């Protein structure tokens, strides 16, 4: 039996926020992988995103037996917290029911890791969410994009598209990350970590 505190929302509605930048110019960027994972989850639900007044594209529905709100903020990454906190207030979701899906420089490409709370590792989207929610106590599903080559600044690296070699495997890794989100919702953090951190 999973402890309620181990499961996002503890049986209530969960906000799944994919992080990225709006507009077609950013669509294939490493920084936008959160959007890619949310789009995969939307496909599994058979639903389409619609515009919400909180400056986000959203889907309300059920996923892995949970009531969920999928959200792709329409603000730029460093202002992500505003639509995320706005949606949390609108739907009555506590920070412990928020799951941020985002790119992670400190993980190899395609690796998936999950955690609750902790630092932001310099990620502007997470920093904005923490500031807007007033706490670090929310879930994170981290998709590895690897470190930039040579002396390329991290800020430039995450705003570039995945390489041709990475794109050949990208759909597979997005699917794995979406599986991790579903496992987190269904079985809790410890179970999801056991399964996906071993890969």
From TrEMBL:
Site, as annotated: Discriminates between blocked and unblocked aminoacyl-tRNA: 21
Residues bound to tRNA: 26, 76, 78, 124
Its biological purpose: Hydrolyzes ribosome-free peptidyl-tRNAs (with 1 or more amino acids incorporated), which drop off the ribosome during protein synthesis, or as a result of ribosome stalling. Catalyzes the release of premature peptidyl moieties from peptidyl-tRNA molecules trapped in stalled 50S ribosomal subunits, and thus maintains levels of free tRNAs and 50S ribosomes.
Catalytic activity of the protein: an N-acyl-L-alpha-aminoacyl-tRNA + H2O = an N-acyl-L-amino acid + a tRNA + H(+)
Similarity annotation: Belongs to the PTH family.
Source species, domain of life: Bacteria
Name of the protein in question: Peptidyl-tRNA hydrolase
Annotated Gene3D superfamilies: Peptidyl-tRNA hydrolase
Subcellular location: Cytoplasm
EC number annotated for this UniProt entry: 3.1.1.29
Active site positions, chain numbering: 31
UniProt cross-references to NCBIfam families, sorted A to Z: pth
Primary localization class, coarse: cytoplasm
InterPro entries listed in its UniProt record: Pept_tRNA_hydro, Pept_tRNA_hydro_CS, Pept_tRNA_hydro_sf
């Amino acid at each position: 039996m999973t402890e309620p505190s181990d499961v996002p929302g503890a049986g209530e509605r969960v906000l799944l926020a994919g992080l990225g930048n709006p507009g077609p110019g950013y669509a294939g960027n490493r920084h936008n992988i959160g959007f890619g994972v949310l789009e995969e989850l939307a496909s599994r639900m058979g639903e389409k995103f619609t515009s919400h007044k909180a400056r986000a594209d959203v889907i309300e529905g059920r996923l892995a037996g949970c009531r969920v709100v999928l959200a792709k903020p329409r603000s730029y990454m460093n202002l992500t917290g505003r639509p995320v906190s706005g949606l949390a207030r609108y739907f009555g979701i506590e920070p412990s029911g928020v799951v941020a899906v985002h790119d992670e420089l400190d993980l190899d490409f395609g690796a998936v890791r999950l955690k609750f709370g902790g630092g932001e590792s310099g990620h502007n989207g997470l920093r904005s969410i923490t500031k807007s929610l007033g706490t670090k106590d929310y879930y994170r599903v981290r998709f590895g994009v690897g470190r930039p080559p040579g002396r390329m600044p991290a800020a430039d690296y995450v705003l570039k598209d995945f390489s041709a070699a990475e794109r050949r495997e990208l759909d597979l890794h997005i699917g794995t990350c979406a599986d991790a989100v579903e496992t987190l919702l269904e079985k809790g953090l410890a179970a999801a970590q056991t399964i996906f951190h071993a890969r």
